[in-house]
């Protein structure tokens, strides 16, 4: 049996096409999820072209849907549970996922919103945790209009930090004050006082400028590099009182952090903004909108909207 999936194809627009792959065969510690929604991340656009995901392999990391087969080792959620997951190869009708990468979606939270949480939400949560953001700390978030940025603004504000959100234009900054940003800046212009933490998604010259603003003892978390520009540090820029530039990547099972984020979203303490939503066969349109900086928040793909069958409950064993 096969399932439909968004697979890497360098000859296709955005290097991705809808194709067929074999039905997943779960390992003992994996459930099978029938995916109803997927979310597109900036990293997926890079993965499709960089060779990190091989030609013909399934793209994607964020999936939400219903468990149709429980894990053989007895871990994880039961058949019929609504779940969200951070797993590679997420953009398929059915995916086998480690139980440690999954969280149950609480009642009251739509799968279309839950699916926006994995990569962007976990990156925001863990990078802030690594840097230490709380009352009395000033946190600068670059690329604050994007997926990671909008979650980081909210989580830092919730932790009690003074939050400075940096965006590419006034229009891109709309709504960030309501999410908890104390200041919304275009670029880093006019910012002179030191900051304790930088969550940087942009890289390039903005990373260099943010480094100069960092207070002694402070930390820059290098989460992404959407500018695509090199960062050129002037001589002696890194000589002085200790402060750190730390590389960041999501490692290890995201399940427990996803459960925290889904809980916050379900109780209305974390707003999930969807700036683009549509059927997954409109992948190219979604990719162009994301790369073109026209998505405020997250882009959500609906899997097989027209042709969806009722979840097929698979036999155990
Ligand atoms: N390390 C990890 O584990 C991890 C996890 C998640 C994401 N990431 C990375 O983090 C970055 C952000 O991801 P995301 O999903 O939040 O992306 P996103 O939703 O597309 O947001 C990125 C933001 O970056 C800004 N931007 C885009 N192109 C730019 C350019 N040429 N120059 C300056 N700013 C630009 C945009 O803000 P404006 O339009 O306001 O300028 C945009 O809102 C990506 O590089 C992604 O690969 C890494």
Rg measurement, Å = 20 Å
**In total, how many domains does the architecture comprise?**
2
Gross morphology: globular
CATH class of the largest domain: Alpha Beta
Helix content: 10-25%
Order of helices and strands: EEEHEEEEHHEHEHEEHEEHEHE
| First-to-last CA distance | 17 Å
Q: Count of helices?
A: 8
**Uncertain spans, ≥5 residues at pLDDT below 50?**
none
Instruction: Please state the second-level CATH architecture of the largest domain.
Output: Alpha-Beta Complex
CATH level-3 fold name of the largest domain? Quinone Oxidoreductase, Chain A, domain 1
Task: Please state the average pLDDT score.
Answer: 95
Provide the list of bound ligands, each named once: NADP nicotinamide-adenine-dinucleotide phosphate
Decide which structural class fits the backbone: alpha/beta
The CATH superfamily of the largest domain bears the name Medium-chain alcohol dehydrogenases, catalytic domain
Search tags:
binds NADP nicotinamide-adenine-dinucleotide phosphate, alpha/beta, seven-stranded mixed β-sheet, Rossmann fold, 2 domains
Would you mind describing this structure in some detail?
- The chain has 317 residues and is an alpha/beta fold.
- It has 2 domains: 2-116 and 272-302, Medium-chain alcohol dehydrogenases, catalytic domain (Quinone Oxidoreductase, Chain A, domain 1); 124-247, NAD(P)-binding Rossmann-like Domain (Rossmann fold).
- It is built from 8 helices and 15 strands.
- It has helices at 42-50, 111-114, 118-131, 147-158, 176-179, 204-213, 255-266, 283-291, and strands spanning 2-8, 16-22, 30-40, 62-69, 82-86, 94-98, 102-104, 138-142, 162-167, 183-186, 195-200, 214-222, 244-247, 274-279, 298-302.
- The strands form 3 sheets. Strands 3, 4, 5, 6, 7, 14 and 15 form a 7-stranded mixed beta sheet that branches. The protein has a 6-stranded parallel beta sheet with strand order 10-9-8-11-12-13, sandwiched between helices. Strands 1-2 form a two-stranded antiparallel ribbon.
- The mean pLDDT is 95.
- Bound molecules: NADP nicotinamide-adenine-dinucleotide phosphate.
- Residues 41-43, 119-120, 123, 143, 145-149, 167-168, 172, 201-202, 223-227, 248-250, 290, 293 line the site of NADP nicotinamide-adenine-dinucleotide phosphate (NAP).
């Amino acid at each position: 049996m096969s399932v439909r999936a968004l697979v890497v194809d360098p000859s296709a627009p955005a290097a991705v096409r809808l194709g067929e792959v074999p039905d997943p065969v779960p390992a003992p510690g994996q459930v099978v999820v029938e995916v109803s929604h997927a979310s597109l991340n900036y990293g997926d656009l890079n993965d499709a072209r960089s060779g990190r995901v091989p030609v013909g392999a399934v793209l994607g990391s964020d999936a939400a849907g219903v468990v149709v087969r429980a894990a053989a080792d007895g871990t994880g959620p039961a058949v019929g549970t609504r779940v969200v997951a951070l797993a590679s190869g997420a953009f398929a009708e059915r995916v086998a996922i480690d139980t440690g990468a999954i969280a149950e979606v609480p009642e009251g939270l739509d799968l279309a919103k839950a699916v926006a949480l994995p990569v962007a939400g976990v990156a925001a949560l863990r990078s802030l945790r690594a840097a230490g953001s709380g009352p009395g700390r000033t946190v600068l978030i670059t690329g604050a209009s994007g997926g990671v940025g909008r979650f980081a603004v909210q989580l830092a504000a919730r932790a009690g930090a003074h939050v400075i959100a940096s965006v590419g234009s006034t229009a891109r900054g709309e709504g960030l004050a309501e999410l908890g940003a104390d200041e919304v800046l275009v670029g880093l212009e006019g910012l002179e006082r030191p900051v304790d933490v930088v969550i940087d998604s942009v890289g390039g010259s903005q990373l260099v400028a943010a480094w100069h603003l960092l207070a002694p003892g402070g930390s820059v978390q290098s989460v992404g590099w959407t500018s695509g520009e090199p960062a050129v540090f002037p001589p002696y820029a890194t000589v002085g009182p200790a402060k750190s530039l730390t590389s960041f990547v999501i490692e290890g099972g995201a399940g427990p952090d996803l459960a925290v984020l889904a809980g916050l979203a379900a109780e209305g303490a974390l707003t999930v903004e969807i700036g683009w939503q549509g059927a997954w066969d409109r992948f190219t349109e979604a990719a162009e909108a994301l790369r073109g900086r026209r998505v405020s928040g997250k882009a959500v793909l609906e899997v097989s909207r027209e042709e969806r069958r009722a979840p097929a409950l698979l036999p155990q064993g």
